[in-house]
């Protein structure tokens, strides 16, 4: 409804909800290019299909709109295709990937990996009450392109100065799992609450995001997370997986 309400009144734009017509298959990992390459005759090289681009492919004989993006921090593609074609493409990719150890993964695996990568989740890490700058997503708004909804508010926040930053915190030891919304303590005062939280399987630690006042937002700063009535030490850190994003662009 928001999109419809902001469409041009002259009828030059048609808005249709096609959610039920399409499926999305996310295929990610170091061998994603090798596996997908067996299912298509299209060029998937870095030069022909660079990171953050999209184009039409034929995958296992079916048309698919492929986006070279990743929500887990590894090389890969999202494939958007007709619901009626999704099952056949899924089966083909799963078969072709057997030699590479391919495995289906569910939402919790995806959530764990994106937490390690430092990727945010709309409605939890970023809400209408937050702003792009403090969430570390200022690169998503081009202030030089002219007017857009929210530009004035964003410019004012930038001019006034940031009050906090969204940061990754890793709990020390084999702590109990954090689920989100737990209190964050520093010097015996509550300074924030967790947003997203989960288990980082790569480092075998509980991991979470929270907005911290700027003096506490530096990597290496110690805080405490209240879990089931106990305060557990935690450290502010950079994303624990490939913080420079090099693995996405190979």
From TrEMBL:
What range(s) does the Aminomethyltransferase C-terminal domain occupy? 165-239
The leader peptide range reads: none
What's in the GO CC field? mitochondrion
Positions of the GCVT N-terminal domain: 1-145
TM regions (residue ranges): none
What InterPro entries would the database entry show?
Answer: GcvT/YgfZ/DmdA, GcvT/YgfZ_C, GcvT_C, GCVT_N, TrmE/GcvT-like
State the protein's name. Answer: Aminomethyltransferase folate-binding domain-containing protein
């Amino acid at each position: 409804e928001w999109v419809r309400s902001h469409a041009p009144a002259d009828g030059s734009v048609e808005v249709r909800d096609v959610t039920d017509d399409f499926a999305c298959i996310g295929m990610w990992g170091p061998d994603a290019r090798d596996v997908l390459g067996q299912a298509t005759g299209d060029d998937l090289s870095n030069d022909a299909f660079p990171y953050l681009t999209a184009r039409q492919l034929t995958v296992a004989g079916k048309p698919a709109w492929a986006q070279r993006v990743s929500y887990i921090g590894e090389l890969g593609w999202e494939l958007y295709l007709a619901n009626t074609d999704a099952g056949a493409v899924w089966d083909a990719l799963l078969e072709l990937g057997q030699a590479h150890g391919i495995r289906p993964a569910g939402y919790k695996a995806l959530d764990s990996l994106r937490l390690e990568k430092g990727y945010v989740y709309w409605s939890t890490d970023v809400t209408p009450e937050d702003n792009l700058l403090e969430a570390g997503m200022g690169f998503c708004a081009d202030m030089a392109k002219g007017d857009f909804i929210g530009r004035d508010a964003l410019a004012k926040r930038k001019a006034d100065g940031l009050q906090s930053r969204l940061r990754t915190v890793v709990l020390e030891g084999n702590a109990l799992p954090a689920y989100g919304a737990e209190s964050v303590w520093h010097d015996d005062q509550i300074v924030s609450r967790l947003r997203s939280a989960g288990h980082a399987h790569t480092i075998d630690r509980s991991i979470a995001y929270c907005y911290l006042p700027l003096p506490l937002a530096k990597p290496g700063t110690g805080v405490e997370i209240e879990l089931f009535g106990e305060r557990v030490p935690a450290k502010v850190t950079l994303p624990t997986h490939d913080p420079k994003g090099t693995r996405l662009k190979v």
